[in-house]
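Forum > Structural Biology > Help requests

Title: Can anyone predict the 3D structure of Dolichyl-phosphate-mannose-protein mannosyltransferase?

Hi all, first post here. I have the sequence for Dolichyl-phosphate-mannose-protein mannosyltransferase but no way to get a structure on my laptop. I'd be grateful if someone could post the structure tokens.
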Amino acid sequence: MEPGNQAAYAAIETKTAAHKGAAAGIRRFLSAEVAIIVVGLVCAAMLALPGRTINAAFINDVLIFIDGAHRITFGQVPNRDFHTALGPLVFYIPAAGYLLTGNFGAAIPMGMAMVIVVFLPAMIRILLSRLSPSMAVGLGIFFILILAAPINLGSSILYPSFAMFYNRIGWVALGLLLVMYLAPRSPGRGNAADAVAAVFLLLVSFYTKATYGLAGTGFLMFMLSDRQQRRWVVTALLLTGVAMLVIEFFWRGTAEHIEDLRSAARVSGGHDLPSILKNVRENLSDLTVFAVFSSVVLWQSRRLRDLVYCGFCIAAGLAIINQNAHSWGIITLYCGAAVLVQKAGELQLGKDGRSAGRLVLPRRALQLLVLSFLLPPILHHSAALVLHTALAAEKAGQSLGLPLFDDLREVDPPGGEPDFIRRYLDDIVTGGALLQALPAPPERVFVLDFVNPFSAGLGIRPPTGDTAWFHWNRNINEKAFIPPDVLFADVKIVMVPKTGINSLPLQELYGPFLSAKFDVIQKTSEWTVYRWRQTPAQSEGR
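Reply #1:
Sure, ran it for you. Structure tokens for Dolichyl-phosphate-mannose-protein mannosyltransferase below:
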């Protein structure tokens, strides 16, 4: 063969190999995308199809969201019509589930199923544009199962509950933002998609729980130091500001929300050093593993930005978990580890695809290590989801005893229900019976305790101007509280339990006002029922 022909054949073979490599890459990308979509849809279906909530822990917390969904169906708007330090999405998510199903038992599972589906586009864009297909699938499944698992982070699978589901949403939103530390593998493409994804994640964070939104904003401010990605970061921050202005135009509750946040911060904003050290101790194994991955990439890169990124994953994670009611689950460590391993692999290969020196472990070995880091929580959350689905399909447990709560069911945790919780559940039944036995149909009922289960459970009109919940020394104490003339301005009936969750300190705080403005109309061994003392000079509309 002549030299000229040999060169031509060699060029053809090179092009063919390149096309085959590109085709293989596309196939891997599409298979990874399909895997994430399938897992997401399966998890969403497992939540939504049984149409029931199975609970074994924090039932009082779950009732906050049910009550909030009920308020929204009556036209109430969070922060404008009732006080809450949580973002409005915490109530609109179960409200959407309730409006779709007409069932309070299905409200939160259906709402979370919709959250999973809505998260998929941003998840696919961020993960597949920055991580290898195997890493993208592993981290994507990890995120999906955090959203889907009906347990409080760190809890046993034998304690199913949708309590504090907003924390799982916030962790996933922040985790996806942290993955964006990596530049897309196709530079210059997809800036608009990155900006839209970041805006979505920031808005979800802010309107679920502001702590996560502030952490995400702080991270994007740090990302302005990346010239390669600065364009979409600036666009995302600007669009988020514009979107929040538009939301405020319709919501008109931002100022009230900030005041509710400040009120809660005055009660529980301080966290001492022992609580921080406790969280470090309980997450020491995860912190150690993350430190190992950090050491690998820092030893290779020797870059200050990488060091700051590692510090942010630790500091932001510890700051957030120190505010939350779960001891395990610094999710920033897991997504941060995946990012660092991806970055370490890129540094090892170098720009020409060859070894760049300073190898600690082979790239594939590092990927296997981080996937093994993700595996235990993946299995744990999978088991929690499967168990909840099975219990919901069997209609396990007992309902809470109110007419509209048949599919909101309580199962005994290991060792049986504590006596205190059993009395609390029994009091819901007796309180509902008391209200239904009143001569006139009840409405605008307020429970002087943690939460009001009766408005939703009986399908009656809720009062306005009150609060979604009271948690002593968390969002109320003797120094920071809603004035009684504001709290009870639209209340017609007050239910006071003899043994509530935090009823005794609330009675000391609001008891004098009740005695002055309300009359006792019923009294049992479990409840005292007050009715607003109507005077002739007052309008009949009260």
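Confidence is low (pLDDT under 50) at residues 351-356. The chain has two domains: 40-393, 419-532.
Shout if anything looks off.
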